[in-house]
Amino acid sequence: MNIALVGYGKMGKAIEALAIERGHKIIAKIGRDGFTPSEIAMADVCIEFSRPEAGFKNIQKCILAGKPVISGTTGWVAKMPEMKAFVKENDGSFFYASNFSLGVNVFFAVNQYLAKIMNHFNEYEVAVHEVHHTQKLDAPSGTAITIAQQIVKNINRKIGYALDATAKDMLNITADRVDPAPGTHHVKYSSPIDDIEIIHTAHNRLGFATGAVLAAEWLIGKTGSFGMEDMLKLNDLK
């Protein structure tokens, strides 16, 4: 594949190295100053890891240029329904994940299953904690938000989530920014008797880069909006 990297930070560089190792070619490396359709004209797919304020427009530009686009940029996903409508309207091909790590997506599946079980045990309080490097601009992270959304969807006693929440019916998310820390996500159910915890810890960015390149390979030839649950067939387990 010919790949255009929209966003050439640490993730972009990790994706570049892995893509080349897998026999793909990087035909564009786009930084913070934006890009024109001509810069991605030769791309078979765009992989977009940019900044929260730029992600939405970057994805739209790729779709309008007729390019399948993989995105892992967080901080804009409140507009996801608008994006999916845009993709459908333009017969686009779009793949989004808050986290491309295969291990994290297994964690997501476990998190949903555990939340369904814990919905029946009101004596357990649940909280989410995440740790990332200091260059991670959004807090909570997109991964922590996905985890929180899964919990709120399956536990009736929680009506929403928030960073440093204090209300009993809100799921509390706490976030730390320390170096070096590619990413740790921790869900803890606590009762007066015991605790139940699930944790995912990334050791480096290789897992994220691998998932993004695999998603790009998988997306070619498809139309619509997709996510890791589609590629990994996690919905088949529900």
Order of helices and strands: EHEEHEHEHEHEEEEHEH
Number of separate helices = 7
* Count of the domains: 2
**Global outline:** elongated
Q: Can you tell me the CATH topology of the largest domain?
A: Rossmann fold
Computed Rg: 18 Å
CATH level 1 class label of the largest domain: Alpha Beta
Count the E strands. 11
Are there runs of 5+ residues with pLDDT below 50, and where? none
Going by CATH, the architecture of the largest domain would be 3-Layer(aba) Sandwich
Relevant terms:
238 residues, alpha/beta, Rossmann fold, five-stranded mixed beta sheet
Describe the fold and architecture.
- With 238 residues, this protein is an alpha/beta fold.
- A six-stranded parallel β-sheet has the order 2-1-3-4-5-11, with helices on both faces. A five-stranded mixed β-sheet has the order 7-8-6-9-10, with helices on one face.
- It has two domains: 2-100 and 206-237, NAD(P)-binding Rossmann-like Domain (Rossmann fold, 3-Layer(aba) Sandwich); 102-201, Dihydrodipicolinate Reductase, domain 2.
- The protein contains seven helices and eleven strands.
Give the secondary structure arrangement, pairings included:
Blueprint: E1 2-6, H1 10-21, E2 25-30, E3 45-48, H2 52-64, E4 69-71, H3 80-89, E5 93-96, H4 102-118, E6 125-132, H5 142-154, E7 160-163, E8 170-177, E9 184-190, E10 195-201, H6 206-219, E11 224-226, H7 228-231
